[in-house]
Every structure is written in structure tokens, then in C-alpha cells.
Amino acid sequence: MPIFLIITVLIIFFIISCFVTVQQGTISVVTMFGKYKRIMHPGLNFRIPFIEMINKKVSIQNRSFEIEFQAITQDQANVYFKAMLVYSVLNAEEETIKNVAFKFVDERSFSQALIRTIEGSVRGFVATKKQAEILLLRREIVDDVKDSLDNTLESWGFHLIDLQLNDITFDEEITSSMAKVVASNNLKAAAENEGQALLITKTKAAEAEGNAIKISAQAEREAAQLKGQGIALFREEVAKGMSEAAEKMREANLDTSLILFSMWTESVREFAEKGKGNTIFLDGSTEGMDKTLKQLMAIEQLKLTKDKK
After folding, report:
1. Burial 48-86 (b: 16+ CB within 10 A, else e)
2. How confident is residue 16, by pLDDT bands cut at 50, 70 and 90?
3. How many angstroms separate the CA atoms of 60 and 294, rounded?
4. 302 versus 95: which is more confidently predicted?
5. Which residues make beta-bridge pairs with 52?
6. Which helix (H) or strand (E) holds 86?
7. What CATH number corresponds to the domain at position 67?
8. Which of 57, 109, 159, 291 has the highest CB neighbour number within 10 Å of its CB?
9. Is 194 domain-assigned?
10. For position 206, what pLDDT does the model report?
11. Same domain, 203 and 289
12. Could you give the number of structural domains in the chain?
């Protein structure tokens, strides 16, 4: 009875050992007597106990790690890179899994080879560029590394998903000089902008002043023109009124000099009313009045002569 029980337990243990579970995102590599036999996909799998052994478990999920390295530019400037690498197994095919499982002794050897390959690719690219160009070539560096690594990684059974250059720095002296260059360029741009703004302000002010002078001159010209026209019209009306008055005086057999005398007395009155206290000297003698009347009559006679012509 105990023997039967032992045999039963052994049979149950053997049957249980025939089944193995593979976790999701993992593929198990099975060997028989040390030689590759087959692969087992995620889920419940059957194997021959004690003969088929699970040699390695290969993860087909994405993996990542960070690396730091240094490169030298064409003009001998040190550039320091901090990068993050994202990669994964190329696919779940049997040949690919065999490459991943047996190309390298262990994961550490693979990581070392991958890091050194990426560093070499980046250094080769940077060595052909100058220090001033590096910061502008971040995307070009990544593309160049991916192009050069794709075939190599595929032969290892892996695929480079992404390479991110998170930080690119230079020696302290170079960083300081670059900051000074940027600061001087900013000051130069600010001075140029300020000069342009001042030029625009001065130009607009000069244009406004010129337009004001132009408008003022035009207004003065128009005012002078209107004033001249008013004076001409006034003189024309005065002359017309004097002619009509003289004609009526002649028809009434009166001396036309009375008109001139009346104009003289009105002028004296205007002087007195609008003089505002100013002293005005007039020759009030009979001879002075006679002289003034003769001058006025001479002017009137000259005008009549011109009218007849």
C-alpha cells in the first residue's frame, strides 16, 4: 500500500511537471540536453520533464536605460551627452528569439555592446561637425545613429525604438563664452530695435511737424488771399460809392470836394474813436486841410482819367 501511494504521488508529480506556464510578454527558450529545441509562447505549455529544460526567458516588452558619454567636435570642443535608449526584441519569431537568447553570454554583455556601438556612432557624427553646430543637430544625430544601428541590432534580434538626447553640454569655458555671445547678440538686437523705434518716432514727428507747417502756410496763404480779395472788393465798393456820389453832386451842381471833405472828417473821427489813447498828430490848419483836399482831388481826378481811357 505505501508503495502504491508513492507511485501514485510520483505519477501526479510527473504529470504536473509536464505543464509549465509562460508569463505574458515573455517567451521561454527550451533546450534538450543543452541543445536548442524550441520556444514556448505565453500561456500553458507542455514539456517533457527532466529532459526539456527552460534555458532562458526572453522578454518581448520594451526596455530602456540611460547612458552618458563624451564626444569631441571637429574644432576640438568637448561635448557631453545624456541619452535615453528605448529598444525591444524585433519580433516573436523563432529565429529572432534564438538570436536574442544565444548571441550574447548574458544581458550585461549585450548592454555593453549596445552602449559602445551607440557611443561610437555619435562620436563619429560629432567629429565631422563644429561646436557651434551641435545644438542645432539634435534630430540629425538621432537619425544618423538609428540608421547606422538598425542593421546591427536586427542581426542581434533587437530593434531600436527611440534615442532621446536629453542633455547636451560643453565645458564650462565654452558654455560661458556662448552665454556671452548670446548676451551680446541680444544687446545688439535690443540696440538695433531701439534705434529703429527712435528713428520711426523722429521720422513721424518730423512728418507731423512738416505737415503742420504745410497746413499753417496754406492756411496763411488762403487767409492772405481772402484778405486781399476783401480789400480789393472794399476798394472797389468805395470807388463805386464815390463815383455815384460825385455823379449825384454834379447833377445837383455841387462841388465834389465836399465828398472828400466829408471823408476827411470821418477819418479824423475814426482816429479819435479807435486811437485808444494813442497820440495822433494831424495838421489842423486851413492850409493843411487845403493841401490834403487837393491831394485827394488829384487822386480822384487820376482815377476818372483812367476810367475814361
Report:
1. eeeebeebbebebeeeeeebebebebeeebebebebebe
2. confident
3. 132
4. 95
5. 32
6. strand 78-89
7. 3.30.479.30
8. 159
9. yes
10. 79
11. no
12. 4
